[in-house]
Amino acid sequence: MQVQPGRYRHYKGPEYRVFAVARHSETEEWMVFYQALYGDQGLWVRPLSMFVESVEVDGKSVPRFALVEAEPGRF
């Protein structure tokens, strides 16, 4: 599983900026570090496995987060 830095759209519509993928210090689980691009622009982490999974919407499988624009040199 790979996630690159850039802007992503959540399946519900809002956009987020992914900064990096990092490993949890206790569990060694891979986590995605990202920021909301709306509202208070909060910072978030989510397990990588959950970030890249598909969800069912109206009977159709769609990615939870879809890449809008890669930003490889930004971070």
Protein model, in words:
The protein has 75 residues and is mainly beta. Helix content is 5%, strand content 53%. The strands form 2 sheets. It has a 5-stranded antiparallel beta sheet. The protein has a two-stranded antiparallel ribbon with strand order 5-6. The mean pLDDT is 95.
Q: What's the structural blueprint in terms of helices and strands?
A:
Blueprint: E1 6-10, E2 15-23, E3 30-36, E4 43-47, H1 48-51, E5 54-57, E6 60-63, E7 65-70
Distance between the termini: 20 Å
What is the chain-wise order of helices and strands? EEEEHEEE
Major sheet: arrangement of strands: 4-3-2-1-7
Outline, from the CA principal axes? globular
Tally of separate helices: 1
Helix vs. strand class = mainly beta
Short description, anyone?
The chain has 75 residues and is mainly beta.
